[in-house]
Amino acid sequence: DLYVKASLVHDQFEAIIETGFDRNTETVAVITGTKGTVTIPNFHRAASFTLTTENETKEFDLPYDHDDFYSEIEAMHTSYNRKEIENPIMTLENSLRCAGLIDLIKEKIN
Fold first, then answer.
1. Per-residue model confidence as pLDDT tens digits over 6-40
2. How far is CA 81 from CA 71, 74, 78, 92, 105, in A?
3. Which of 57, 65, 71, 108 has the lowest tally of Cβ within 10 angstroms?
4. pTM value?
5. DSSP label at 4?
């Protein structure tokens, strides 16, 4: 698909994602809750976020030690060297839950 706008609705929240390959849009995630908003610029390679509440706006910088894939590669090497078939940071169960969520999103937008 070139463009998708999807809503995930739950009794306690609603999440909206909009993405497209056919247009230039800002790469930002905005999460709005009852107590404020979290804004994450460049969310697919996030290194900072802004928390905005009724009383204040606070910026958080979380720079990478190396680059954004270093931790994943390091975790894989650690598991390989320990002969682990899965890493405790992202277990098979977690991966299956993510795949299930992607399937659910596909179902809803088709």
1. 777 777 777 777 778 888 878 888 888 888 999 99
2. 15, 11, 5, 18, 36
3. 65
4. 0.60
5. E
